[in-house]
Write a structure and sequence with these properties.
eight-stranded mixed sheet, two-stranded antiparallel sheet
């Protein structure tokens, strides 16, 4: 697919294909490679995070790239870490402070979040899950609009997609209001626009 149409049917088909590809890739991934993936922050990303105070991660579900594995290194770098809390079924969420040792509580759609009594924080960087991405840094999400709204709410936050390398596709249909990612980190590379830096 090479045009910029945003027909929901096109996105729906892409999501179905992307889920199937991701599931098949993770199912055949070497167990050791899976355990080691996304535990190290590549140097170019570490430099981009130098002045960042709070990084919003997410708890990977099923075969999603597991963002929570980045928490230990981020904490060691002196960063505060937060996780999303889904507020309703209309695409609203905020971010609550979290440490890897903290208990998690069940949320909507099978999500987990920190203690509900926590005070929401403003993220300086948002690590987002995705189904697909392209070289233009367009992101194909689940379709709920949660991260689209978060990007719009905090437009100055660094937008980082986390994905398995198989999730790159030729072109993601983008609407005029969509905010592209700044970069995508896969298990093998850090991708910014049309340039690729090998991950550590």
């Amino acid at each position: 697919m090479t045009d910029d149409t945003s027909d929901p049917a096109d996105k729906g088909t892409l999501r179905m294909i992307a889920r199937r590809r991701r599931r098949a890739f993770v199912a055949t991934l070497d167990p050791l490679a899976h355990r080691l993936a996304f535990k190290v922050i590549p140097s170019p990303l570490a430099r981009r995070l130098q002045d960042v105070r709070t990084v919003a991660l997410y708890m990977g579900l099923d075969d999603e790239a597991p963002a929570q594995r980045l928490a230990a290194q981020l904490v060691a770098m002196g960063k505060a870490v937060a996780l999303p809390r889904v507020l309703d079924r209309l695409g609203s969420m905020d971010f609550l402070p979290w440490r890897p040792e903290d208990q998690l509580f069940p949320g909507l759609f099978g999500t987990s979040h920190p203690a509900p009594a926590g005070v929401p924080v403003v993220p300086d960087a948002i690590v987002a899950p995705l189904l697909g991405f392209d070289k233009a840094m367009n992101r194909l999400g689940q379709g709920g609009g949660y991260y689209d709204r978060a990007f719009a709410r905090w437009p100055d936050a660094l937008r980082i997609g986390l994905a398995w390398s198989v999730q790159e596709i030729d072109a993601v249909p983008a609407d005029p209001w969509d905010l592209p990612l700044d970069m995508v980190m896969t298990e093998i590379a850090l991708i910014e626009g049309d340039t690729t830096d090998e991950g550590a």
